[in-house]
Amino acid sequence: MSLGDTVQGILDRGVADGDVVGAVARVISADGEICSAAAGTRGADSDVPMSDDTVCWIASMTKAITGTAAMQLVEQGQLSLDGPGAEVLPLLGELDVLTGFDDDGNPVTRPRNGDITLRHLLTHTAGMGYDIWSPELGQYEEVTGTPGVTECRKETLSIPLLFDPGDRWFYGTGIDCAGQMVEAVSGMSLGEYMSEHIFGPLGMTDTSFKISDDMRARISAMQARMEDGSLVEMPFEIPQEPEFEMGGGGLYSTVDDYCRFLAMMLNGGSLNGNEIVSPETHAQMVTNAMGDLRVTMLPTAIPPYSFDAEFFPGVEKSWGLTFQINEEPAPTGRPAGGLMWAGLANSYFWIDLQNQVAGCYISQQVPFADPRSYGLYEAIETATYNSL
User: Fold this and answer.
1) Whole-model pTM?
2) Which of 145, 211, 233, 334 is the most exposed place for a label (fewest CB within 10 A)?
3) Which domains does the chain have, with CATH numbers?
C-alpha cells in the first residue's frame, strides 16, 4: 500500500470514529509532494468536503512565519537577536514580574531582572505566558479586566512576566511582541510585511490575518469536543479589525500554502529560486537557541481549550528560532534534530532536514492536544517513517 493510501485511510478512519469532523494532511519532500489526503467535512453542520484548499485557522503555526520575518530583519541588521528589545519596542522595558496577589486579590509585582531580547521572545524564555496554561495569568486578567490574547487588544501585551528573562521556558505571547518589533522597524503592518517578503515569494495566496471573500467561501468551521466525545460547531473567529495582528497565532491558511513554507525550510531557506532567508540564517533557525533550558509540559488551566500539552514526553526538547527541536529520536521515527510545532485548533507540522521530509496535518477543533486528533497526526508521521 502506498503512503498516500495509508494516510487517506488514517483520515477516513478518524472521521468514521468521530476523532475529527474533517481533516487534511500532506507529506512533502524537498522535490515536491509525496502524498496529500482529506476526509470529512468543513464542519459538523456542513456537507461540504474538506479539501487541500479549505481555509483553516492555523493559530500557533503562525509563530514559525513570524519568526522567519524577524530573522529576515536580523539578517539585514535591522533587528538584534541579543540586544535590548526595548530599544525597538519600549513596552518590553516596562514589564515587571508577577509574584502573586495581595489579601484584596490585587496583583503584586516586582521589577524584572535583565533585558528582554528577541532571542528570549522567539524561544519562549522571556517570562511571558498564556492564560490557557497559567492560572496566575488567568487570575491577573480576571481581576484587571485584561482581555485574552485572541481578542488582539494591545493591552494584553502589557501583562506582567511570570519569571525573569532567560530563567526557563514557558509558552506564551513572546512572538506577538516579536511581530510588533517587525512592524516597528519595517514601518509596515505584520500582514503587509509577510505578504511582501514571505507569502508573495512563496506563492502562499491563501494565507492572511484578514479573511478575504474568496478565503471565506472555503473556510472550515471550528468544533468543540463535548463531554460525551461528540464534536459540535462553535462560533469562533480571530478579530478582523484587530488592534494588533497576532504574530503568535492570527493567521488563516491552507495545507497547500503551509507546505510551501515547509518546503522552503526543507530547502535551506529558498524555494523556486526565491531566497526567504540565507543558508546561514536558516542554520541559526533550526539549531537550539536557548542553551541548556528545555521544553516542559504545559498543564492546562482552561480545560475547554487545552488538554495537558507536551509532545513526546520523556524526549529532551529544545527550541530554535522558532521551532521545537527534539534533541533525541522521537517515537514516530523522526531523528534527533527534527523540528515541529502546532496550532491550538489541533493542527500540527514537522520538518526533518536529515531525511528531507516534512508534513502538515490540520483539523479545526478544541481542546488543543486532543489525543484523538493528535493521534491521527502522529499516525501519519509514523507511517511516513515506516515508508522511507
Assistant:
1) 0.98
2) 145
3) 3-53+187-387 (3.40.710.10), 75-183 (no CATH)
